[in-house]
Write a structure and sequence with these properties.
948 residues, 23 strands
Length: 948
C-alpha cells in the first residue's frame, strides 16, 4: 500500500458515505465491517459516520488534531478536498490522511535515515535528504506538539510528533545508519526494528565494558605509535584512523563466546594486520619487531612472505572464561580473494566437528571499502553464502572504510552510494557506523552478532574511518587528498576523544587511564629490548594436529600402495548400480547401468567414469571423506558421471555413492554456481583443514580456471613456499584438442608448468581409467601432500580404446611414465613422446601406416618429472636415436616450452630432441572444425615423416 492507493481508498469512502450502492459489494462490506466494529451507524446515503472505516482502510488510527478541551480544532473542521458533506466523516477522513503522512515519515526514516546519519568522523560527506523533513509530508511546525498515534514505532505510546521525530533521529541518524528495509522477510525487518527502536540504537554500557573499550583502544593506538616511532619509515599499513577495529573484534569475540562459538576463522587484507596479530591473536610483539629487523635473511632465500601477509592462530579467552580458537588466514596482495578461502576453512572445520547447524565455527572477514566495492570475487562470495554446498551459518563482514582507495576517491571508484551496496543482493542488514563513536560500535557489534545467531545469515558492518598516514607510511596522501588530510592533521585520536567522554561521565579517572597507557607502553618496550638482545628464533607455527601425519617437501621415491581387493571392488561398483525400490530411472541410463554391472563382474573392461566412481567408493569405505564441487559436476559436463540420479517422475534425487556402507565417510557432491575464483578459493580453503580426504574442484572446461588465476598463483602454487601451508586440493580440468574452438580445448598446461618449482604441485594427464583410478587413490593415501592438477579427457571418456581391465584397477599402481609395451626401444629410429589424447591419434596412425617399429611413450606425470626415472625409461634406446615430442598444442603452449627449457636440444647428451606441434599462436586453437582436422592430419603426418 502506498500514498496513491490511500487516495484511492479515500475517494471510495467519500462515494460510500454519499451513496453506498456506488461502490462495489466488496468495498461496501469492507467499510461496513469497520463501522460496525467502531460502534457507528452504517451509512445509508449521506448519513454521518465517525470515520472508523476511513482510518482502518488507510492504515490510520490516529487521534487527529485536538484542542485543549478535546474538541476538534478549527483547522480540522474545515472541509478537506473531496468532502463528503458530513462533518464527522470529513474529520475522520482528515485524521486518516494526516496519520498516513506520519506513518510515511516513519517509513522514510527507516528507509533513508542512514543518508543523514553522522557517519563520517571527518564530517566531510554529509548528505541532505528532503524526504525526512516533516514539511515534505505536509506536516507543519504547529503539528510538532500535537499528539498522534505512534503504534507503528516500537516501545512508544501516545507521544507528540516532535517526540516521534526525536526517537527516529536517535535511532537512525546518529552514529549508526541502518539499511534493512530492502529485506523482503517481514519477520526479519520487524526483529531489527524492535531491536533498534526500543533502545534508540544505543547500548547501556556498564563501567567494565566502557573501561574494556578504552583499554582496547589503548592497545591499538599505542602499538601503532610505538612501531612508527621505533621503525621510522617502515611499511606497516597502520591502523591509525581506524583503531576502533580492535575493540570491535574484541566485542565480537565476547559475543561469539556467549553464542557457543568454538572457532573463528578470520580473513583480512594488509591494513591493521600487525595490530590484529598483536592485540587479538596475541602474537608476541618481539616476533613482530624481529620481522622489521629481519636478522636472518638466509632463512627466507626464495621463500617466505612480507610481515603483513602472514597468518597466525591462537586461543582467545573471553571475560566469561570461554575459549575460542582463532585462525587468521594468510593473504596475498590480491585483497578480497582470501574471503572464500576463509569460508572454505570454516565449512571444513564445521564438518570436522559434525556441526551441521553451522553454529560452532564462524567467519570474520575484514575488508577495505574500495576492494569490497571493486573486486568481483566479493559478489561471488556473497552469492555463495546461502547455497547448500557453501553455507557457513553467517559471516561477520567488517569494512574498514578509509573513504579512499589508495589515491582514488569513491566517486571514481564505485557507481553506488556506499561501498557496501553490493551486499544488498542478500537479505541481510548493513550497518554503517562512525568509527569515532566506540559506543555506537558496541551497539552495532552486539546487534550484528545477535542477528547472525538468530538467522544464520551474513551481516555487514561498515566502519567509517580514515587513514592517518595514507596507503602506507611511505605514501604522501596530501598530493591527492589535500582537503581530507588537512582535516585529519587537526584530529586527536579516537582514544583521546573517548577518554574525554569517559572522564566527563565519571566512568574512569585520569589516573586509571594513565595506568592503562603506561602498562601497554612498558610491555612494548620490554618486547622491543628482547628483540634486540634475545637470540632470534623463527616464529614458525607448526601445522595443526590433523596435519601431523603429513608432509610437504620433495616428492618421495617410495610408491604408495593403491591396490584394492578385486572382489570387494566389484561389489562396490555393483552397489553403485542399485537404486531404491520404486525409483524411476531415466531410460537412457539403463544401458550404462547394465554395462557397469558387467564391469563389476569382470565381463567388461572398465571405462573412465566407472573407474572414477570406483576410486571414490573405495576411499569412502576406507574412511576418507570426499568433497567435489564444480559447474554440473553431479552429472558431469559430458554426461559421463551421473553421480546424482533424478527420479523422472518425482524429481527426487539419489546418490549411490552415499549408500555404500553404514559406516562410510562423508560425501559432499555439489553443483557449484557459475563461478570459478570464488568456488576454487572455497575448495582450496576447505582442503587446508581436510588433509585426510579428497577435495576436488572440477572445471566445466579446463580453460575456465583462468578466471581463478589468482587462487592458483597466489595460494595453490606458492602457499607452501610462502606460508609453509600444505594442501591436497585436486583440480579436474577437461583438456583435449577436438575442434571445439579455442575456449574449450586447452586447460593451459603451460601455465601450470611455468609456475612448477620445488615440487610445489603435481601436473598429471592420465590416459587410461586404471591410471586415473590409482592417481586419485594415491592422492589421498600417500602422506605427501601437494595440490594435484589433473588434465582429464573429453572425447576419450567414450573412446573404445580407453578402457582398463578390473584386475588392473585392483592390483596395479599409478605409473608416471607408460612405455610402449608392444614396441621395444632397441633398434628403433625414432621414439615418439607425448601425453594425453594425442597418444590415441598416434596409435591409430601407426596402425594405419603399418609402422609397427615406432614406439610411443607417454608422460603421465609432467611434474614433478624425476630425471632419473625419465632417463631410466629410455634404457635400451640406441645413442643418436631421435626423440620427438608430439603435442596438439601450439609450439608456445602445452608441455613443450617446459621440456625445451629443461632438456634443450639433447637428452642425456646422446639423444636428439625436437618437437612436432602446431605453429606458434596467440590463441590455443582454430575455431573451424575443418581447419582443425587439416592441422591434426598434418601434425600426425609430420610425426611419422621419413619413417618406413
Amino acid at each position: 500500500m502506498n500514498s496513491y492507493s490511500l487516495d484511492y481508498i479515500d475517494d471510495l469512502y467519500v462515494q460510500y458515505v454519499r451513496d453506498p450502492s456506488s461502490v462495489s459489494e466488496t468495498w461496501r462490506q469492507y467499510f461496513e465491517q469497520f463501522l460496525v466494529g467502531a460502534g457507528a451507524p452504517i451509512s445509508t446515503g449521506n448519513a454521518g459516520g465517525n470515520g472508523a472505516a476511513a482510518k482502518a482502510a488507510t492504515g490510520g488510527n490516529g487521534a487527529g488534531h485536538l484542542t485543549g478541551d478535546g474538541s476538534m480544532s478549527a483547522t480540522a473542521l474545515q472541509a478537506p478536498p473531496g468532502s463528503t458533506g458530513n462533518v464527522v466523516a470529513d474529520q475522520a477522513l482528515w485524521m486518516a490522511r494526516i496519520q498516513d503522512r506520519i506513518d510515511q515519515l516513519v517509513r522514510e526514516y527507516r528507509v533513508r535515515g542512514h543518508l543523514i546519519a553522522e557517519l563520517d568522523p571527518l564530517g566531510l560527506n554529509r548528505q541532505d535528504c528532503p524526504e525526512l523533513s516533516p514539511a515534505s509530508h505536509g506536516l507543519s511546525d504547529d503539528d510538532l506538539k500535537r499528539p498522534f498515534d505512534s503504534s507503528i514505532l516500537e516501545n512508544v505510546t501516545g507521544p507528540t510528533l516532535d517526540v516521534i521525530l526525536s526517537k527516529l533521529q536517535n535511532t537512525y541518524c546518529r552514529g549508526i545508519g541502518a539499511q534493512f528495509m530492502h529485506i523482503d522477510n517481514r519477520n526479519i525487518r520487524d526483529w531489527l526494528q524492535k531491536r533498534m527502536e526500543t533502545t534508540e540504537n544505543r547500548l547501556d554500557l556498564s563501567h567494565d565494558v566502557q573501561r574494556r573499550i578504552y583499554a582496547r583502544l589503548a592497545d591499538a593506538s599505542i602499538f601503532e605509535e610505538f612501531v612508527r616511532r621505533k621503525f621510522v619509515g617502515a611499511k606497516t599499513f597502520s591502523l591509525e584512523g581506524a583503531e576502533t577495529l580492535i575493540p570491535m573484534i574484541d566485542l565480537a569475540l565476547e559475543k561469539a563466546g556467549q553464542h557457543n562459538v568454538k572457532e573463528v576463522v578470520m580473513g583480512m587484507a594488509h591494513r591493521g594486520r600487525l595490530n590484529v596479530m598483536a592485540n587479538i591473536l596475541k602474537k608476541r610483539a618481539m616476533n613482530i619487531f624481529w620481522s622489521f629487523d629481519d636478522p636472518r635473511p638466509e632463512l627466507h632465500r626464495g621463500g617466505g612472505d612480507v610481515r603483513y601477509h602472514l597468518g597466525y592462530s591462537s586461543d582467545w579467552t573471553t571475560s566469561a572464561g570461554d575459549s575460542i580458537h582463532i585462525s587468521l588466514c594468510f593473504n596475498p596482495s590480491h585483497l578480497e580473494f582470501v574471503n572464500t578461502v576463509a569460508q572454505g576453512r570454516s565449512r571444513c572445520k564445521q564438518d570436522n566437528r559434525g556441526d551441521d547447524r553451522r553454529e560452532e565455527v564462524m567467519t570474520i572477514l575484514i575488508h577495505g571499502d574500495a576492494a569490497f566495492a571493486g573486486e568481483g570475487v566479493v559478489q561471488e562470495m556473497l552469492n555463495m553464502s546461502q547455497l547448500e554446498g557453501y553455507r557457513t551459518g553467517g559471516t561477520l563482514h567488517i569494512i574498514i572504510n578509509n573513504q579512499v582507495g589508495f589515491t582514488t576517491l569513491p566517486r571514481d571508484g564505485r557507481s553506488t552510494t556506499y561501498a557496501t551496496d553490493v551486499a544488498k543482493m542478500l537479505q541481510i542488514p548493513i550497518f554503517h557506523v562512525n568509527g569515532e563513536d566506540p559506543e555506537a560500535v558496541a551497539q552495532v557489534v552486539n546487534l550484528a552478532m545477535d542477528f547472525r545467531k538468530a538467522f544464520h545469515r551474513d551481516v555487514v558492518i561498515d566502519l567509517y574511518a580514515f587513514r592517518r598516514w595514507g596507503h602506507n607510511e611511505g605514501d604522501e596522501p596530501r598530493f591527492t587528498q589535500p582537503r581530507m588530510y588537512s582535516e585529519i592533521d587537526r584530529r586527536a585520536t579516537v582514544r583521546e576523544k573517548y577518554l574525554e567522554r569517559l572522564l566527563s561521565l565519571g566512568k574512569i579517572t585520569a589516573e586509571e587511564a594513565e595506568e592503562i597507557n603506561r602498562e601497554r607502553t612498558e610491555k612494548l618496550e620490554t618486547e622491543f629490548e628482547a628483540s634486540k638482545n634475545e637470540p632470534f628464533v623463527a616464529d614458525t607455527q607448526t601445522l595443526a594436529a590433523n596435519w601431523a601425519d603429513y608432509h610437504g617437501g620433495p616428492e618421495p621415491s617410495d610408491p604408495v600402495d593403491t591396490t584394492y581387493d578385486k572382489e570387494r571392488l566389484g561389489q562396490l561398483i555393483d552397489r553403485l548400480t542399485r537404486l531404491p525400490e520404486g525409483f524411476s530411472q531415466h531410460k537412457k541410463l539403463k544401458r550404462p547401468m547394465q554395462q557397469r554391472r558387467e564391469m563389476a563382474e569382470g565381463n567388461r573392461r572398465v571405462d573412465w567414469a566407472t573407474a572414477e566412481a570406483a576410486a571414490f567408493a573405495s576411499l569412502l569405505v576406507e574412511g576418507h571423506p570426499i568433497r567435489i564441487t564444480g559447474q554440473d559436476c553431479e552429472r558431469g559436463t559430458f554426461s559421463q558421471r551421473h553421480a546424482v540420479l533424478h527420479d523422472v517422475k518425482t524429481g527426487e534425487t539419489y546418490t549411490p555413492l552415499s549408500h555404500l556402507t553404514d559406516d562410510q565417510a562423508r560425501l559432499e557432491l555439489y553443483n557449484s554456481p557459475l563461478s570459478e575464483a570464488g568456488v576454487l578459493g572455497f575448495e582450496y580453503g576447505y582442503s587446508l583443514d581436510c588433509p585426510g580426504g579428497l577435495v576436488a574442484w572440477e572445471a566445466q572446461f579446463g580453460d575456465f580456471w583462468n578466471c581463478a588465476q589468482v587462487i592458483v598463483d597466489q595460494f595453490i602454487a606458492s602457499a607452501e613456499d610462502k606460508w609453509s601451508r600444505l594442501s591436497g586440493l585436486v583440480m579436474l580440468l577437461p583438456h583435449g584438442f577436438e575442434g571445439q574452438g579455442p575456449e574449450h580445448c586447452s586447460a593451459r598446461i603451460e601455465r601450470f608448468l611455468a609456475m612448477a618449482a620445488e615440487d610445489n604441485i603435481q601436473v598429471c594427464q592420465p590416459t587410461t581409467p586404471a591410471q586415473y583410478f590409482h592417481l586419485l587413490r594415491r592422492q589421498v593415501l600417500m602422506k605427501w601432500r601437494k595440490p594435484l592438477i589433473v588434465l582429464t579427457p573429453k572425447s576419450l571418456l567414450r573412446h573404445p580404446e580407453v578402457t582398463s581391465p578390473l584386475k588392473i584397477l585392483a592390483k596395479s599402481h599409478f605409473k608416471k611414465i607408460l612405455p610402449d609395451r608392444k614396441v621395444p626401444l632397441e633398434g628403433c629410429q625414432r621414439l615418439l613422446l607425448c601425453t594425453g589424447k594425442i597418444y590415441y591419434d598416434l596409435l591409430d596412425a601407426r596402425q594405419q601406416k603399418e609402422l609397427d617399429g615406432v614406439p610411443i611413450m607417454r608422460l603421465e606425470q609432467l611434474y614433478p618429472l624425476q630425471v632419473d626415472e625419465f632417463f631410466g625409461a629410455l634404457e635400451g634406446l640406441a645413442e643418436g636415436s631421435e626423440i620427438v615430442w608430439v603435442q596438439d598444442e601450439p609450439r608456445n603452449m602445452g608441455a613443450w616450452p617446459y621440456l625445451k627449457l629443461n632438456f634443450g636440444d639433447q637428452l642425456l647428451r646422446k639423444y636428439k630432441f625436437r618437437e612436432v606441434t602446431r605453429s606458434e599462436s596467440a590463441s590455443p586453437s582454430t575455431g573451424s572444425m575443418a581447419t582443425h582436422k587439416l592441422e591434426q592430419s598434418e601434425l600426425i603426418e609430420e610425426a611419422f615423416a621419413g619413417l618406413s
